[in-house]
Specification:
single chain; mainly beta
């Protein structure tokens, strides 16, 4: 038997920060074949829902719990957004400098990175890559305030809902997370080359099956 030990050196881990946001634009076949850097991303709040217990009773006892389907949503906050995001925010630009709102909203993909830290290496311990599929952005309010002696930049915010995509051998999903401290570094580099592009290849969001295939 091994006795449990708490808070050993190197085991005090935490997660922080968000960066490396990328917006992925689907082509006519639904493939996220084009990626655009998202500057100014300040927060991503993941909001899973569902998976609620629905109790069933029989023989005067609690017979079983049926669990409802799980859904995934999120809230994005940013100081700015790529011009390419307009079509996913219900905006159309019929001519340069003119924008029309309340237009159909399209589905997009997204990736972002969060930092992993521990008590030895600090924030340089590692990171997680978060890949989102089938995203829809809902309208949200924007407050424009008078400039005063404590000026602040406007923060844009969007509520994101998702439609899961197929995963071979598993239920459909809208979220994949990759932990840099737990996967092969070469395979991780191959994934990042896809997500962020190279001098020769444009950035794209691979399917869940393609992601899983990189990490045998």
């Amino acid at each position: 038997m091994v006795q449990l030990v708490w808070d050993e050196v190197g085991d005090r881990t935490y997660e922080t920060g968000v960066d490396h946001g990328v917006l992925y634009i689907p082509n006519t076949e639904g493939v996220y074949a084009s990626g655009v850097a998202w500057n100014g991303l300040t927060a991503v709040t993941e909001s899973p829902s569902g998976a609620e217990a629905n109790a069933k009773y029989a023989d005067n006892i609690k017979y079983l719990n049926l669990i409802s389907a799980e859904d995934f949503g999120a809230t994005l906050e940013a100081y700015t957004f790529p011009d390419e995001f307009a079509q996913f925010d219900g905006l159309v630009v019929p001519t340069p400098g003119v924008t029309i709102g309340q237009q159909p909203r399209k589905i997009f993909g997204l990736s972002y990175r969060t930092r992993l830290g521990n008590d030895v290496e600090g924030d340089e311990y590692g990171y997680k890559l978060h890949l989102l599929y089938g995203c829809n952005a809902a309208p949200s309010e924007r407050a424009y305030n008078s400039i005063n002696d404590s000026p602040e930049a406007i923060t844009f915010s969007w509520t994101i809902s998702t439609t899961p995509v197929p995963v071979t051998g598993h239920k459909p999903t809208a979220l994949i997370t990759i932990d840099s401290t737990a996967v092969d570094t070469d395979a991780l580099a191959d994934l990042e080359a896809l997500l962020y592009g190279t001098a020769l290849v444009a950035a794209k969001l691979p399917t869940p099956d393609e992601v899983i295939a990189l990490f045998p």
